[in-house]
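Our consortium's second objective concerns turning raw sequence data into structural hypotheses that experimental partners can test. To show how far this objective has progressed, the report includes one record in full. It was chosen at random from the queue rather than selected for favorable results. The single chain below, 303 residues long, was entered without modification.
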Amino acid sequence: MSEFLRDAVDLQVQVDAIGLGAVFALMAVGIGLVFGVMRLVNFAYGQLIMAGAFALAYASDRDWPVGVGIALCFAVVLVLSLAMERVVFRPLRAQSAAVMLIATFAVAFLLQSIALLWFGPLGKTATSLVQLNRPVEIAGVDIRKITIVAIVTAAVCLLLLVALLNRTSIGLHMRAAAIDSQTARLLGVRANAVSMVSVLIAGALAAVVAVMLTVQYPTVTPTFALQETILVLAGVVVGGMTRLLSATLGGFLIGYVSGLLGGALPSSQSQYLPSFLFGLVILVLLVRPDGLFTRRRGLVERV
């Protein structure tokens, strides 16, 4: 037990845990943004990340420049996000939440099956950004470059999103649609434009996550980012889905705890990490079913 605690407070483990929490926070923002505006839990979000990772691997396999590979990643993810919104989400917007939920499951398995047929079960390897996985020494601690990049990128993306939501007209429309979509439409908010922008922003964040995860896990398979997406969804629920901030904090928290336990647990017990995480999720929901970072009120509050 003492060895576990010593490893848990190790500065190297702490920094890596914060870096993983930053990546999970970006995923939580993408999921929470779509849920806030469209009341849709997008289970296909992980497959968008997978598609972006395959784009990076495709560019790496052909020795294209790193910038071209990243541009291809963003293009693939944004095109898929736009197609998903136009073909699936928009026609089903008036349907029940259960119908839209099943639709996202169908889209997720469709994209996964396409990747399996196209690239095979073994997938591809992306090596163009592997140099970011090398450590640099800061204050006597070896910190991987990708950890620093992940923390800085997450902070910049979150600040830009806050500025967009608070200082632009489309951000105001998105917040109005999140509070009450029907009233917002009556006041002149264009539902199609708001949903499209929210899905595209979530897609851009998915592309950012694809780049950062590919650095840490260069082997891209059809199940790439699936486990991370499930953990982030659990984190969003733990944080509280009724606010974008609470969902983001929940995503960061479960990423941080995952990195902390992953660094502190012995390698022979690493397979038990998901069991520990979801056990903690159950305990938290038993105590705070509305989420850790939401205020308890008598009525259920919408975003």
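The partners drew two points from this record. The CA atoms of residues 46 and 303 lie 23 Å apart. Residues 12-234 form one domain. Both points have been shared with the crystallography group to help prioritize constructs.
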